[in-house]
Write a structure and sequence with these properties.
single chain, 79% helix
């Protein structure tokens, strides 16, 4: 294995993992809103972009079989850079919607494949001690990527709109910058990533063997205790957030005459892309500490309340329509902090459900249900909001929180689980 300090590649690798996901799931929302697309169309089109993460377990074995993980990483980074350039190129043109969606799809599939390869490479490129040491570093740089993308880049798009007086060219310039960044990351990682000997030793498996292995994984997954309670929990625990996530972003930037807060892109970058991400991160850290001290079962219901009750802040915002940016920041921080704390229960339960034989494959299936839980509500969230207005929509979100309580009620969790260190 070629010697390479992990600090030379772990932070940049997970920064590169975060940027395209945020571009697909968050930046696209604001861009399409500024370009005049309706909320119903925005949420429908962008929610379908979750699909690559939903079906990721289907092609992850082929990533292991066909090429080295290092090859997949650098190749996907080049494709992501090309997709970002494609979005930038098509935005000013007459076929901007069809063209940009096409390249967002390429970006989504490349990003999901990059996730598979990067997470596998992390375990091959580091020894056990370094894997434990850098687990916090990789999460930190993923969050930095989130702040950089949904905070700084969205704010930059707003500043360029002021300078150029042209919305399309402003967003096009931002995506060209992102494309340049990814070309630079591709060049850097082509040099910086180590070459573990294990990465070149691929198992000789046939397609038929992979299919049989996948069938066995699915069969054992559905034979687990409390399978239907577990699947319902995976699908419905986050359903209110699935409704809220995309519409809340559109509400923040929508004009006052449409019932929104009318934030500029720069203000949105501060509120959601910076303050919100900090709240989400702190909530997640506190949730992990609490569960590791007393176990998941002890903190399950406080986490359920944390992920549901703060949704009320959007009911308040939609009725009060405050103009003071500090108040908006406080409300978004509270909601995101609660979501981060409550989401800890969800992630720990996925680990809990995946225990036993085939735990890696079962966890991958759990994450597919996790992506599906955000995809399905998002498909119709915008249409629902347009039919009832922001105020009634947020009331519906709060009412949907009852599903979170119902599906949690049927869970049976070992009181000792989570008290020891649990690695995601």
């Amino acid at each position: 294995m070629r010697a390479r300090n992990p600090w030379a590649w772990v932070p940049t690798l997970y920064f590169a993992e975060g940027v395209p996901y945020v571009a697909v799931m968050t930046i696209s929302l604001i861009m399409y809103k500024r370009l005049g697309l309706s909320n119903a169309d925005i949420t429908l089109y962008t929610s379908w972009l979750y699909l690559p993460w939903v079906i990721k377990p289907l092609w992850s074995p082929f990533v292991d079989m066909l090429k080295s993980k290092r090859w997949w990483i650098v190749t996907m980074q080049l494709l992501i850079g090309a997709a970002l350039g494609g979005v930038a190129f098509t935005i000013p043109g007459p076929w901007w919607l069809q063209g940009s969606l096409c390249f967002f799809w390429l970006m989504a599939f490349s990003s999901a494949t990059h996730d598979i390869a990067a997470d596998g490479f992390y375990m091959l490129g580091l020894d056990q001690h370094d894997q434990a040491y850098f687990v916090g570093i990789r999460s930190t740089f993923y969050r930095i990527a989130t702040i950089f993308s949904s905070g700084l880049l969205v704010g930059l798009a707003g500043a360029l709109q002021v300078l150029t007086r042209n919305i399309r060219y402003s967003w096009s310039l931002v995506f060209y910058m992102m494309a340049g960044l990814f070309i630079a990351l591709w060049l850097y990682h082509s040099w910086a990533l180590p070459k573990p000997s294990e990465d070149g030793e691929r198992q000789q498996r046939t397609v038929r063997g992979i299919v049989e292995e996948f069938k066995q994984t699915v069969v054992t997954f559905f034979k687990k205790p409390q399978v239907w309670a577990g699947i319902c929990f995976m699908l419905f625990y986050r359903m209110p957030e699935g409704l809220l996530a995309k519409v809340s972003a559109l509400f923040l930037v929508d004009s006052a005459r449409n019932g929104g807060l009318g934030l500029s892109d720069g203000e949105y970058g501060l509120v959601q892309g910076t303050v919100g991400v900090v709240g989400l991160t702190l909530g997640g850290i506190l949730g992990g500490i609490a569960a590791s001290r007393d176990g998941l079962k002890r903190w399950l219901w406080p986490m359920v309340m944390a992920i549901t009750l703060p949704d009320l802040v959007y009911v308040y915002l939609s009725y009060a329509l405050p103009s003071h940016l500090l108040l908006v920041n406080v409300c978004v921080f509270i909601e995101q902090f609660g979501y981060g704390f409550g989401f800890s229960a969800y992630m720990l339960y996925l680990i809990y459900y995946s225990q036993g034989e085939h735990k890696t494959s079962h966890y991958a299936l759990c994450t597919a249900f996790m992506a599906l839980s955000m995809m399905i509500p998002g498909l119709f969230a915008g249409a629902l909001q347009e039919s009832v207005g922001y105020q009634n929509f947020f009331l519906i979100v709060v009412a949907a929180c009852s599903l979170t309580y119902v599906v949690t009620w049927f869970l049976k969790i070992d009181s000792e689980f989570g008290k020891k260190q649990v690695e995601e």
